[in-house]
């Protein structure tokens, strides 16, 4: 799977912008994710695959917020969708739909409003209406062959899962929450390489400056 992407990287590695570094970092972290997935460690696989995704979408800025980060990766997905005439990215999601939909999209435990509106205990029950509405929108679009809304909803779920794992709000190998972790590892295994391909195939797009560029010692 990655051999073709490494060949693509070789074609762009001589560029004088940040695109080669962005792709190189994403490929290396994807390799780590694939190893973890093969070795039966979905927690590590999710973390490594998300880092690969982060390497692709993150644009250097002096201002950081959770809202800005979400806008960045959602904007990235929207752009890739427009640069994907062969539907490779959304086609990859379609192929792993049986994992993505029940394990993540239909899973309230990786739906942000379930937690922020107090759905985990006493609180505002309106998260359920938002949850149901989004699922209906995703299902309606998917029935028409449009998986972009599903892709965007999916990565919102994966972002919350990423936060749980990165910030120690989940236990590795735990007997609970396995459904979303295993689904996340499987889904990202299929989708992240397609996102890397989109950048390789469109290196002249403005993908922004990377964080922490390589600085050669004098």
Structural class: mainly alpha
Please state roughly what percent of the residues sit in beta strands, choosing from under 5%, 5-15%, 15-25%, 25-35%, 35-45% or over 45%.
Answer: under 5%
What do the pLDDT scores average to? 93
The number of helical runs is 10
As a whole number of angstroms, the C-alpha radius of gyration is 18 Å
Question: In terms of per-residue confidence, which ranges show pLDDT below 50 for 5 or more consecutive residues?
Answer: none
Count of the separate structural domains = 1
User: CA-to-CA gap between the ends?
Assistant: 37 Å
* Count of distinct strands: 0
Shape: globular
The major beta sheet can be summarized as: none
Summarize the helix and strand pattern as letters. HHHHHHHHHH
Helicity, in percent? 55-70%
What would your notes on this structure say?
With 218 residues, the protein is mainly α. It has one domain (2-201). It is 67% helix and 0% strand. The chain contains ten helices and no strands. The chain has helices at 2-12, 19-38, 42-57, 66-82, 88-95, 97-105, 112-116, 127-143, 148-166, 178-201. Helix 1 (2-12) packs antiparallel against helix 2. It is globular and about 55 Å long. The model has no long low-confidence stretch (mean pLDDT 93).
What are its keywords?
mainly alpha
In summary, what is this structure?
This protein is an all-alpha fold and 218 residues long. Helix content is 67%, strand content 0%.
């Amino acid at each position: 799977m990655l051999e073709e992407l490494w060949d693509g990287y070789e074609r762009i590695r001589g560029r004088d912008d940040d695109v080669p570094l962005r792709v190189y970092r994403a490929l290396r972290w994807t390799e780590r994710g694939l190893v973890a997935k093969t070795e039966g460690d979905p927690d590590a696989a999710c973390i490594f695959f998300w880092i690969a995704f982060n390497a692709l979408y993150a644009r250097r800025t002096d201002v950081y917020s959770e809202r800005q980060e979400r806008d960045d990766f959602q904007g990235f997905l929207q752009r890739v969708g427009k640069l994907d005439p062969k539907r490779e990215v959304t086609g990859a999601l379609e192929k792993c739909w049986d994992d993505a939909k029940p394990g993540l999209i239909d899973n309230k435990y990786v739906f942000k409003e379930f937690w922020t509106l107090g759905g985990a205990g006493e609180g505002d029950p309106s998260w359920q209406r938002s949850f149901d509405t989004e699922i209906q929108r995703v299902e309606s679009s998917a029935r028409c062959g449009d998986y972009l809304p599903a892709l965007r909803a999916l990565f919102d779920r994966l972002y919350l899962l990423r936060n749980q794992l990165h910030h120690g709000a989940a236990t590795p190998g735990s007997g609970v929450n396995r459904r979303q972790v295993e689904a996340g590892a499987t889904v990202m295994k299929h989708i992240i390489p397609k996102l890397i391909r989109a950048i390789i195939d469109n290196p002249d797009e403005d993908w922004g400056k990377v964080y922490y560029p390589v600085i050669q010692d004098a």
